[in-house]
Q: What sequence folds into this?
């Protein structure tokens, strides 16, 4: 019993959340750079800039996301689009498929303002 108590006291508390591909890419400068290039080539040249501008649909670097701001929301939106808006779905049409999409999301998260967590 004493040994179990000692082992429990010495064990490192782990998060309930597994390390995700996004977490990995957030720590990888090469992945973040690829995400930036994907953003500039697929998003910034059409609807979203790296800084808010008049007529821009959505500033992706602020804390106000109209259609959902979770990582899964962003993944879904970029994949399927938003009906009745200019946001088309890219599906898995990035050169490296979903890996590229997670690198793009990692870039957005890395560049995003620090938002208050409620």
A:
């Amino acid at each position: 019993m004493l040994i179990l108590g000692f082992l429990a006291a010495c064990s490192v508390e782990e998060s309930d959340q597994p390390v995700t591909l996004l977490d990995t890419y957030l720590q990888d400068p090469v992945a973040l750079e690829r995400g930036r290039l994907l953003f500039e080539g697929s998003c910034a040249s059409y609807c979203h800039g790296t800084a808010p501008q008049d007529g821009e649909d959505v500033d992706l670097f602020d804390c106000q996301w109209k259609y959902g701001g979770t990582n899964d929301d962003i993944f879904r939106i970029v994949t399927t689009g938003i009906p009745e808006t200019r946001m088309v779905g890219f599906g898995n049409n990035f050169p490296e498929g979903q890996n590229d999409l997670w690198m793009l999301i990692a870039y957005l998260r890395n560049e995003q303002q620090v938002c208050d967590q409620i």
Remarks:
- The chain has one domain: 18-111.
